[in-house]
Amino acid sequence: IKKDRSTIYVDLGVATAIIYGREFQIGRNILRAVKEGDAVRAKIVELENEDGYVELSVSDADREQRWGEVKELKEKGELITLKALEANKGGLVFDYKGMKAFLPVSQLSSEHYPRVEGGDKSLIQGELQKFVGEEMAVVVLDYDIHEEKLILSEKATTPDEIRAKLEKYKTGDDVDGEVS
Description:
Elements: E1 2-3, E2 7-11, E3 16-20, H1 21-26, H2 28-31, E4 43-46, E5 54-57, H3 58-76, E6 80-88, E7 91-96, E8 99-104, H4 121-129, E9 135-144, E10 149-153, H5 160-167
Parallel strand pairs: 3-5
Antiparallel strand pairs: 1-2, 2-3, 4-5, 6-7, 6-9, 7-8, 9-10
């Protein structure tokens, strides 16, 4: 209905709602482009405040929507391409729609896996540093909404042709190979 410097009034049809104070500050990036007459996705955080308004949160609604997308990506096994932001001893860190996502070293594809003499973690981190700024195709391996953990896997994106080659082997088969 109305927008001023630190408050947005929203017509819910049956009541007037408000986004203000802390919720306005937290959601300011979402609300920056909102104009009078626009629809707003928000979550009700209080049915009636001391002034009689329904209080809304756009940041809570945005968070729930992003985690819903993560759940769907995992269920479908859908491939996403993300840019590595940083490397640490355990793996790579990415950003997925404002959420930190972690790709453990163990979930790198064999092509990208850092082969380091003796498994020295500082050398592994140095090898992983080469991927910072690079895009990688990954899938959601696991997530925990309450702990805000998002775990990715590059290894799980193994092409079907490689899977088909591996399927011809059974437990107990003798196979010649090269140790790397």
